[in-house]
Design a protein that fits this description.
Number of strands: 5
Low-confidence stretches: 503-507
Strand content: 5-15%
Order of helices and strands: EHEEEEHHHHHHHHHHHHHHHHHHHHH
Helix content: 55-70%
Number of helices: 22
Shape: globular
Strand order of the largest sheet: 1-5-4-3-2
Largest sheet: 5 strands, antiparallel
Distance between the termini: 27 Å
Radius of gyration: 24 Å
CATH class of the largest domain: Mainly Alpha
CATH architecture of the largest domain: Up-down Bundle
Number of domains: 2
CATH superfamily of the largest domain: MFS general substrate transporter like domains
Length: 507
């Protein structure tokens, strides 16, 4: 799963200024160090193998770079941009030695270990997102098969989300016995339990399997966030969150792409649950290669006092944000099917067309959050995104498609800045527990939104009216962020959490 070995050869005129440029060690995606034999090797970077040599025939300089990326699962995605970066470093006679990271890379130089962990966690994020998305995408078809109405549908969505209590012990265990061991367990358990939905004889039985499987996927998700925060350099945490979110979008997209299986017959939705078993391949790889986090292995306070003020503030944001996000997500397919007359294939096309490209906003948001800070970005992006998402429940035709796309894109910009706070504001000894409690808070907010939306729709209210009502929660999110949240960009976790100051800071 490592990126294939590559060689890039460039020929330059043998001129003093050009030679000086080429002989200067690179310091962009990779930091080079010149060895005694004149070969440039990686000092810091994401490669398992890296060598650059410069030879001369008297008229020309030949620069040859050989490298192998250390990015599991997603090496293919970075193969072309890395090759372009290595092959197109142009000579600038004014700024001869520019030190620039490309727009698609983390602001900090990352190491082989960082690249390995990001790749493995991104694959795990796909698995988590698939299991978390599956019931939302298939519940409408299963409800029709079993003859369940609006209220029953909303109650089922709430019960599945209430299963978060199952995930909380895993959060505590991650603080007690380590992140790696717990992630291994849930990476296996989540797809296996979720896949049992294919065998459900009744709608309550389906709900029961997903009320266990989905929280296991959520446990995997919030532990991924903990590992990302503990492993990544201080200027790249939001970027890493954006990468995880993009991988999650891909995992959710795979669930959506599998949705047309539901049109194959009355029980076609069961086939979508069988697809879940493909994520066992990811579980195998995580079990083999995921290391324990550096910060957890350092001496740290065990189960320190949890800052209740921070927890309450972050929990309030989680509740109010998901009071809108959960019903807007859960009822989108129902809205498209009931109001717009979409079948499973059109729903899949709509979701892939509007949500998947919008994931590009995550990369933009990750870099902005790391470079410019979190709070201002949240305050600008969330109101715009909320307005556009609400618009997709009001208008039809192409405006609906563009509104959904815009809402997803702008929401993607806001997401890394908001999500990274959950792990940044707590010390190593209770970071997992805090992540679990905040995830539970988000689920409670989602349950409240789902129940209200279900009741109001059953009474004949329009989708635009009820989604507009729960959208008011986003106003409170912005107010809390602006008045209560600290700015965490460019700061080490040990600075934000004095309990961990005894441990040395990350590079």
């Amino acid at each position: 799963m490592l990126g294939a070995g590559r060689t890039v050869t460039r020929v330059w005129p043998d001129q003093p200024a050009v030679r000086e440029f080429i002989d200067h060690p690179r310091d962009d995606l990779v930091g080079e160090q010149r060895s005694q034999d004149g070969t440039y090797r990686q000092l810091e970077g994401p490669f398992t193998r890296y060598e650059r040599t410069v030879t001369s025939d008297g008229e020309h300089l030949t620069e040859r770079t050989t490298y192998r990326l250390n990015i599991p699962w997603f090496g293919w995605l970075f193969a072309f941009p890395v090759r372009m970066l290595i092959g197109r470093r142009g000579f600038d006679p004014v700024h001869r030695h520019p030190h620039r990271t490309p727009w698609w890379a983390p602001p900090d130089q990352i190491s082989q270990r960082h690249a390995l962990v990001l790749g493995l966690l991104a694959a795990a994020s796909m698995s988590s997102a698939f299991t978390n998305t599956l019931f939302t995408q298939t519940a409408q078809f299963a409800a029709e098969d079993f003859g369940v109405g609006d209220v029953g549908y909303g109650v089922a969505q709430s019960i599945v989300r209430a299963g978060i209590v199952i995930a909380l012990p895993f959060a505590i265990l991650a603080d007690r016995i380590g992140r790696k061991r717990v992630i291994r367990v849930v990476a296996w358990a989540a797809p296996i339990v979720t896949a049992l939905g294919a065998l459900a004889p009744t709608f309550p039985a389906l709900v029961a399997t997903q009320a266990i499987g989905r929280p296991l996927g959520l446990a995997l998700d919030f532990l991924i966030a903990v590992v990302v925060a503990e492993e990544m350099p201080r200027n790249s945490r939001a970027y890493a969150v954006s990468v995880m979110a993009m991988a999650s979008g891909l995992g959710a997209g795979i669930a959506v792409m599998a949705l047309p299986l539901a049109d194959l017959g009355e029980n076609g939705w069961r086939l979508v649950y069988i697809v879940t078993l493909i994520w066992l391949v990811v579980a195998v790889d995580i079990s083999r290669r995921l290391p324990e986090t550096v910060r957890y292995e350092r001496p740290h306070a065990v189960a320190p006092r949890l800052d209740r003020g921070r927890l309450a503030t972050l929990a309030a944001v989680a509740v109010f944000a998901n009071f809108f996000v959960a019903p807007a997500s859960a009822y989108q397919n129902r809205y498209l099917r009931e109001i717009r007359g979409f079948d499973a294939g059109m729903i899949s096309l709509f979701t892939l067309t509007t949500a998947t490209p919008a994931a590009l906003g995550l990369i933009v948001g990750g870099r902005l959050a790391d470079f410019r800070g979190r709070r201002r970005l949240i305050a600008i992006a969330i109101p715009v995104a909320t307005t556009l998402v609400l618009g997709s429940f009001v208008v039809g035709g192409m405006p609906m498609w563009f509104s959904a796309f815009g809402g997803g894109f702008i929401g993607g910009i806001a997401y890394p800045a908001l999500a990274v706070y959950r792990a940044e504001l707590f010390p190593t000894g209770n970071r997992g527990r805090a992540a679990g409690l905040l995830t539970a808070s988000a689920l409670l907010g989602g349950i409240g939104g789902l129940l209200i939306v279900g009741q109001l729709l059953d009474r004949g209210q329009s989708y635009g009216q009820v989604i507009g009502l729960v959208a008011l929660g986003q106003v409170l999110v912005v107010l809390i962020v602006l008045t209560k949240f600290p700015e965490t960009a460019h700061r080490e976790l040990e600075e934000l959490n004095p309990e961990d100051r005894a441990a040395p800071s990350s590079a």
